[in-house]
Amino acid sequence: MSNSIKKRLADLLDRELFIPREISWLSFNARVLQEAADDSVPLIQRLRYLGIFSNNADEFFRVRVAEVRRLISVSSGDNRQQAKELLVAIQKRVVELQGEFDRIYQQVIAGLAERKIYLINEQQLEEVQSNFVQAYFTSTVLPELEPILLREGKPIPALNDESLYLAVEIRSADEYHYAVVEVPTDRLPRFVEIPRRKGKGGKVFIVLDNIMRACLPQMFRGILSIDSAAAYCFKFSRDAELDIDTGIGESLIEKMESSLKQRRKADAVRMVYDQKMPDRLRDFLCARFRLGKYDSLIAGGRYHNSKDFMDFPRVGPKYLEFKPLSTVRLPRLDDTDNIFDAIREKDVFIYYPYHPFDYVLDLLKTAALDPRVSKIKICLYRVARDSRVIDALVNAVHNGKKVLAVVELAARFDEAANISWAERLTDNGIEVIFGAPGLKVHSKLLLIERKEGGAMRFYSHIGTGNFNEKTARLYTDFTLLTRDQNVGKDVYNVFDFLQYNYRRPDYKLLLVSPHSCRTGILELVEQEISNARAGYPASMTLKCNNLVDRELVMKLYEASEVGVEVRLIVRGMCSLRPGVKGMSENIQAISIVDRYLEHPRAYIFYNRGNPRYLIGSADLMTRNLDYRVEVLCPLFDRDAQQMLQDVIDQQWHDNVKARVLDSEQRNDYVGSKPKAARIRSQETIHRYLASGKLPRYPKSRMHKPARRRRKKKSQD
User: Fold this and answer.
1) What angle do CA 513, 514, 516 make, to 5 degrees?
2) Is residue 14 assigned to a domain?
3) DSSP one-letter code for 212
4) What percentage of the chain has pLDDT greater than the value 70?
5) Residues 6+ apart with CB under 8 A from 68
6) Residue 601 three-state SS
7) 3-state class of 470 per DSSP?
8) Residue among 480, 504, 515 at smallest CA distance from 633
9) Are 474 and 413 spatial neighbours (Cβ–Cβ below 8 Å)?
10) Does the pLDDT value for residue 530 go beyond 90?
11) Are residues 341 and 412 in the same domain?
12) Does this model's pTM top 0.85?
């Protein structure tokens, strides 16, 4: 067999085994779009889902598509051809999703109009409204505008890929002139309320870009004589990869700041534009901005940067948005005089946003004041804009504590904010370090050293989410607070490694990337494989954001082949193909998209009826297992184990918001049998945490004792 034929067979096998992660990611964003299309979702929330979809798409092009383009530029032969084919498949799917987006948008706008909430354009303005818009433009908008005339041979500044632009075509004495102007949504609201229409009542809004369209002659008054003018929205997505110089002449912060400046000038990987833009204007823009044949040109509706819909004003009846779920308090923490006493008595297991993030803030604030606390160490990846976590750390220093903060400067799209936080922390006497070279610190760790009974004791926080008050209200995440000293010593060793990278700690309980996470997870899977081969019931449930590591996927295929029951709850990318005969028949996978973003990582292994439970920061991706500092922590507290099991079981039996993940990427809803109880897991979990009552569904194998299966005698 020739080498070329072997290569083709290997490629075919690869495609049968793995779904390209970029295609799988687009399937995730299609699930977000499903929520926007769902008539049962409140209307304004549907509009916000459109915003989430748009925001996701921006990041996808800046990260995933940019990576595929780089592969095309640096590869050759079959590898280059595969990358080109993948880019074509991406572009085809993106165009399909954009068409679906535009259709849903029109539905939602019509639905809002039926409820007397109007989003109108500049051509629909009545006289009173037009006068208001003209006055608002002159007083508020015009001072913020900096139009750029595009002239042949004249350089133009790099455009911001996070911004929306108007491409303006001006006709003057049979000549066309072109200009671009940024829509200043970073300084002005995108949605402006204007006077009501005569006799119609309700609320009327116009977007900022339509206000600018209505006032184009004023924008160019005194510069050009204008016979006619028209404006069309467009925006860029640029490669978000940071190229950080490894030289020693600058500090890490200086290198990061320099790299961020270069990002603004990075290659464009996508231009989304108004489909009614004239070809001559589109071609002129492509030429001026040097868009190549591997860049995505995507025609869409009149409006772009739809991520702004995430912040659409709160207007109209309450039923147009989700009814808020009440916060579930933990009496054991509320009734104690000192949170350290509660943690010392028993581990605390918290599940955001059902439980409040206030408990972590209380722990930090108490530690800042407690005279027996001497040291606080914390990993900061993304924090809120007005972070009370940072305030508590600063207060701790003012009260004589030693505070160490590991700040991850390379947290994508939060780099500038984290540079600013690092400087503020340093200015306030906090020791700031940036982790290990070449390893992004993604762990969600907090360690407090407190003197008790003449000895120093560790109090540890291991979480699946960031120390961020805002996202703790929007994302589901687990947090463990424990006084287990063995856990505390391992957490101490993680921080020791981050300070002194040449040391290789010996972890007793934690699985820590890049040292032991991969091997630890593979050993747990291998144990289930061994149990199945020995005739014992064997199963595992893996809940994560992404499953794309090929070695682990192959190990799960092996587990399925020997009869291990594998349940996957994967929010985003899943390269594994579930339910394929002869390969993954014993693997089932679902994804849940609902009002909260599913963010935890939790891994459960049956272990012959003595389940192993782990939570932490590590997704099942090569980067998380090998190139980041991640931590997975076992749960030993029986109540915490039971709560995690109950939560996972409810999610597994979700028949309202769960979708089936399959090889065809169809995103079919799980659905339910006739007369079956309706289980929308995020709602049933809230009721369970508030009342302790579980919905009715078949119990998980995790609750059953392990009995060895009898092997049938072979027949001669």
Assistant:
1) 65
2) no
3) H
4) 89
5) 22, 83, 86, 87, 90
6) strand
7) coil
8) 480
9) no
10) yes
11) yes
12) yes
| CB contact at 8 A, 376 and 403 | yes
Q: Where are the alpha helices (DSSP H) in 115-215?
A: 127-136, 208-214
Q: How far is CA 103 from CA 96, 98, 135, 205, 234, in A?
A: 11, 9, 33, 20, 19
pLDDT in tens, 309-340: 999 999 988 999 999 999 999 999 999 999 99
Q: In whole angstroms, what is the distance from residue 381 CA to residue 599 CA?
A: 15
645, HSE (Cβ side, Cα atoms, 13 Å): 22
At 491-527, the pLDDT tens digits run 999 999 999 988 888 999 999 999 999 999 999 999 9
Range of the domain at 450: 331-495
pLDDT tens per residue across span 364-396? 999 999 999 999 999 999 999 899 999 999 999
105 and 148 housed in the same domain: no
Residues 181, 168 contacting (CB under 8 angstroms)? yes
Q: How many helices (H) and strands (E) does the chain have?
A: 21, 26
pLDDT band at 710 (very low <50, low <70, confident <90, very high): low
Condensed to tens digits (0 to 9), the pLDDT of residues 201-211 reads 899 999 999 99
CB contact set of 481 (below 8 Å; sequence gap of 6+): 343, 347, 348, 349, 350, 359, 360, 363, 459, 460, 461
Task: Report the share of the chain in percent with pLDDT over 90.
Answer: 65
Shared domain check, 613 and 464: no
Domain boundary among 435, 462, 495: 495
Give the number of other CB atoms < 10 A from CB of residue 302: 17
Tokens of 300: 């869409």
Burial 545-554 (b: 16+ CB within 10 A, else e): bbbbbeebbe
Per-residue pLDDT, 73: 79
| Residue 6 resides in a domain | no
pLDDT 10s digits, 571-623: 999 999 999 998 999 999 999 999 999 999 999 999 999 999 999 999 999 99
Q: Answer yes or no: are the C-beta atoms of 435 and 498 closer than 8 Å.
A: yes
How many domains in the chain? 4
Which active-site residues does the annotation give?
Answer: 442
**DSSP H helical segments within 584-637, as ranges?**
622-626
Residue with token string 């640096």: 74
Residues contacting 363, CB < 8 A, separation 6+: 339, 343, 446, 448, 459, 461, 481
Q: Are 461 and 481 in contact (CB under 8 A)?
A: yes
